[in-house]
Design brief:
This protein is α/β, with parallel strands linked by helices. It has ten helices and eight strands. An eight-stranded parallel beta barrel has the order 1-2-3-4-5-6-7-8, surrounded by five helices. The structure holds 2-phosphoglycolic acid (PGA). 2-phosphoglycolic acid (PGA) binds next to β8.
């Protein structure tokens, strides 16, 4: 099945480097069976779009304001993202939740705003090492999913993506075990489908130290619909291999 492979460049690249990385993606990732999405920082989106508009790749943003317009200094509206051709937006990444205090309520508002536009939300959830050692991962992640999806109804054709990103696996070189990922993805799917309805188009993707050596074993799990890739997405050859995963 076609997978969703999302590159999260975080705040690692400036405008010129983002442009160059997009050009490398375009050269290396051709006729991919998977849907591949690049998410640069806000300021680089226009330049990345210029490169990728003549490719099979899509692009998106790493955050969105829950307001469409108005007195929100420093925020970026989904209307602007749409104008720049974004089709996806990452919401509630753990780095934003931890560093900036982004709450589940904010994540929920942002997801609703994205869906009111034509942006597919990629909602990030995942437990910390502390929660994991306390054996509380399932309860915690289930709670995050429920709060993120409160009052959300998908219109026909609309899609929603949940990225399971255990915080302890992000940027640490430690990936979760394929069977643990599978179990958590099943729980996320079950929880989300109860809220969205069984017809909902939902994809559950995994993120956390994915690279070209770990990707295949995880991709074999039936509930893994794709990947959210941070560090390895900055290396075009490595990311191109990940993008080709079956
Ligand atoms: P990583 O980041 O692949 O570098 O662990 C993933 C993410 O934070 O989205």
């Amino acid at each position: 099945m076609k997978k969703l492979i999302v590159a999260n460049w975080k705040m690692n690249l400036g405008v010129r480097d983002s442009y160059n990385l997009a050009a490398a993606y375009k050269k290396l990732i051709k006729k991919s069976k998977n849907q591949v999405v690049a998410c640069p920082s806000f300021c680089a989106i226009a330049d990345v779009a210029e490169v990728l508009k003549t490719s099979d790749l899509a692009w998106g943003a790493q955050d969105i304001s829950w307001d469409l317009k108005g007195a929100c200094t420093g925020e970026v509206s989904g209307v602007t993202l749409q104008e720049l051709g974004c089709t996806y937006v990452i919401i509630g990444h753990s780095e934003r939740r931890q560093r900036l205090g982004e709450s589940c309520r904010m994540v929920n508002l942002k997801a609703k705003t994205a869906l009111d536009l034509t942006l597919t939300p990629i909602i990030c959830v995942g437990e910390s090492e502390v929660k994991r050692s306390a054996g509380a991962s399932e309860t915690f992640v289930k709670g995050q999913v429920k709060r993120a999806l409160a009052e959300i109804k998908l219109k026909p054709m609309q899609e929603l993506v949940i990225a399971y990103e255990p915080i302890w696996a992000i940027g640490s070189g430690k990936t979760a075990k394929p069977r643990d990922i599978e179990a958590m993805h099943c729980l996320i799917r079950e929880t989300a489908m109860k809220m969205l309805g069984t017809e909902a188009k939902l994809r559950v993707i995994y993120g956390g130290s994915v690279d070209d050596t770990s990707v295949e074993a995880i991709a074999m799990m039936p509930s893994v619909d794709g990947f959210l890739v941070g560090g390895a997405s900055l290396k075009p050859e490595v990311f191109a291999k990940i993008a080709k995963v079956e």
